[in-house]
Amino acid sequence: METKNLAINNNWPADVKVQIQPAQPKKLTHLPQRPKVNLSFSNLSYTVKQGKQDKVILKNVSGTLRSGELTAIMGPSGAGKSSLLNILTGYK
């Protein structure tokens, strides 16, 4: 395993050394192996009744979530982020 020594420009005593070592990936051997999947959706819309009127929560939303990639769903409060996740997971 390769380690790197860093020279840090600060007020620490000269005998303080910092080493950076690559982290070993954790293996979750107790969990069952699942096949990798990608998730795609297109023209997803979601409407709820609000009194006598319909309120559009999501309108023509499309996207792809790729296996092994980190995906962020961002937006202001009330934009429909939680609704989108609830629909994709089958809660709504």
TrEMBL record:
Top-level taxon: Eukaryota
Cellular component aspect of the GO annotation: plasma membrane
InterPro entries noted in UniProt: ABC_transporter-like_ATP-bd (IPR003439), ABCG_transporters (IPR050352), P-loop_NTPase (IPR027417)
Membrane topology: Multi-pass membrane protein
SUPFAM superfamilies found in the cross-reference section: P-loop containing nucleoside triphosphate hydrolases
The ABC transporter domain, residue ranges: 58-90
Molecular-function annotations in GO: ATP binding; ATP hydrolysis activity; ATPase-coupled transmembrane transporter activity
Keyword annotations from UniProtKB, A to Z: Membrane, Transmembrane, Transmembrane helix, Transport
Locations listed in the record: Membrane
Family membership noted in the UniProt record: Belongs to the ABC transporter superfamily. ABCG family. Eye pigment precursor importer (TC 3.A.1.204) subfamily.
PANTHER family per UniProt: ABC TRANSPORTER G FAMILY MEMBER 28 (PTHR48041), PROTEIN WHITE-LIKE PROTEIN (PTHR48041:SF6)
The protein's name: ABC transporter domain-containing protein
